[in-house]
Amino acid sequence: MMKEATVARRRLLQGIAAVAVIGFDPVRRSWLTEAEASRSLVRLPRLDGQLVTDAASLAAAADDFGHYIHRTPLAVLKPGSINDVVEMVRYAKQYNLRIAMRGQGHSTHGQAQVEAGIVIDSSTLASVSVNASDAVVGPGATWRQITAATIPRGLTPPTLPNYIDITIGGNIAGGGIGGASHRHGAVVDNVLELEVVTGHGHLRKCSATQNAALFNAVLGGLGQFGIVVRARIKLVPAKQLARLYILQYPDVGSFLDDARALALDERFDHLEGQINADAMGRYGTVTMFAVKYWSPGPAPVDATLLRGLDHVAQEIQDIPYAAFVARLDPIIEFAKTVGAWALPHPWFDIFLPASTTETFVEETLATVTAEDTGNGNLILYPLRRSKFKRPFLRVPQQDEVFFLYDILGFAPPIPEVVNYWVARNTGWLDRGRDLGGKRYNIGSANLTRQDWRKYFSPLWPAVLLAKLAYDPMNILTPGQGIFPWGRPVDCDD
Ligand SMILES: Cc1cc2nc3c(=O)[nH]c(=O)nc-3n(C[C@H](O)[C@H](O)[C@H](O)COP(=O)(O)OP(=O)(O)OC[C@H]3O[C@@H](n4cnc5c(N)ncnc54)[C@H](O)[C@@H]3O)c2cc1C
Question: Which of 169, 184, 234, 391 is the most buried (most CB within 10 A)?
């Protein structure tokens, strides 16, 4: 079925050169260039940017960081303005085309892809304007672009993801977690105001006090209720330096105990653990990165910060704050050089309550070695439930502290192996759910409708109501797989 659709689509697109299209043929369901305009066409609205159908643009939009799902869109919009997004969503709604915005495509399971629909490339909407305590940013702005504008002015977003080449739009859809999230919550907890294009093609401003229902739905709403076209995000004063305490733990349990206590007492600005493999490839020891930001003047007091901790070895380093923000650059450069960046990445990500994290982590470590993950990274962030306030970013409710556990592997480019990893992730999610966990929706797993109901539980009725209010024709962001049924949403869903 999928193959037939792909072949038919290729035929439709044959002969369309790498030039902008001018309209849509609703009968043949294909785009038309000027040369083909004699066919009956529905002209595109006037666009400030371009709608393109060239092979390179379609191939880029049909890929993501997972590199194993490829859904080819009919066209890619490179918007020249917010109005272009409004016009194309209206157009998509009129001709029953599905549509999604793509940030940098760093999700791993096709979340930003649209089979036979329209992908909006947000990179052309990436402006950053810095004010005294906030910044107004375009949806395609990456954290690298945002921090390049804020840090020289002595300001920073309170929560930054580890990797800064992902976009604010992608993080608003998914949540956005970083080492400071135990203090400041997710990226979505630090958004002050949004401009959103709903599935009706309406441009709406929303915040905690204006259109609050839309605001709450879109933050962590996985692109289901609107396309974010502008965001006003909180900024806080940035310190000049980051003091890194690199602490070694002999096992996961001792790390979790200290991480839990540190998340609660907030003595550090950033907390993160990485599970290490020994010479035999067995994961077990943990390195904690506990970070204190400071500016020249009174320095952090090491003895006070490390008091009561159970680590067995330590190293202390000072680096400029901007270098800390970009700390993954050399590792990513290396991964690109050795080809690991281009491998399939069926990544696994789950939030777990503190009381069940050790059980779950030990169960996974009993079945996975460094060889199995392609020397992947296993990461644990301690987080606080009371700091996560957005209803649709679902997190464990049973303990105040919970952990994000990521298994970030590099798979061989063999479909059977990738399928096995995705199936294994799906099984782990089931097990994690039994332990009170919630999926972090940036990675790879096959979720059924029932799984999504459980994920949003007890808010599934609210999700349905929001979908009916803001995207009843069900055209937005199909790649998340929440409403995959290609028809309008109704109350029975
Ligand atoms: C190396 C690496 C490190 C990472 N580190 C972190 C980390 O530390 N913390 C963390 O939280 N995540 C991390 N991630 C995951 C990242 O947050 C997700 O991949 C996320 O999807 C953002 O990536 P993106 O901006 O490329 O969005 P995409 O993958 O392009 O999009 C993700 C989803 O958001 C939707 N979307 C994008 N823009 C908009 C918009 N403007 N409006 C509505 N919907 C939109 C898309 O349609 C899609 O469904 C990492 C990923 C990689 C590859």
Answer: 169
The DSSP symbol for 133 reads: S
Task: Say what the pLDDT of residue 40 is.
Answer: 55
Ligand 1: nearest atom to the Cα of 345: 53
Query: Is 428 found in the same domain as 359?
Result: yes
3-state secondary structure of 295: coil
Which numbered atom of ligand 1 lies nearest the CA of 142? 25
- Minimum-distance ligand 1 atom for the alpha carbon of 104: 26
- The three-class DSSP label of residue 398 is coil
Which residue's C-alpha comes closest to atom 4 of ligand 1? 163
192 CA to middle of ligand 1, Å?
A: 19
Do 175 and 66 sit in the same domain of this protein?
no
Residue numbers of the chain with a pLDDT score lower than 70: 1-19, 27, 34-41
Q: What are phi and psi of 404, to 5 degrees?
A: -95, 125
Number of domains in the chain: 3
pLDDT value at residue 39 = 57
pLDDT score of 35: 65
Q: Spell out the residues 6+ positions from residue 465 whose beta carbon is closer than 8 angstroms to its own.
A: none
pLDDT of residue 8: 35
Among candidates 421, 305, 331, which has minimal Cα distance to 372? 421
The closest of 189, 176, 272 to 236, measured between CA atoms, is: 189
Exposed/middle/buried for 330, CB within 10 Å: 0-12, 13-18, 19+? Answer: exposed
Does the pTM surpass 0.90? The reply is yes
pLDDT of residue 23: 78
Calculate Rg over the CA atoms of the chain: 23
Residue 169 lies in a domain: yes
Q: Ligand 1 atom 27: the closest Cα is on which residue?
A: 170
Q: Same domain for 319 and 352?
A: yes
Kindly report the CATH number assigned to the domain that includes residue 54.
3.30.43.10
Name the token pair of 209: 């006090």
Contact 28, 12 (CB under 8 A): yes
Question: Distance between CA 38 and CA 331 in Å, rounded?
Answer: 53
Tokens of 464: 């349905």
Residues 225 and 141 in one domain: yes
What does the alpha-carbon distance between residue 455 and residue 351 come to, in Å, rounded to a whole number? 11
Domain containing residue 406: CATH number:
3.40.462.10
The reported pLDDT for the residue numbered 357 is: 98
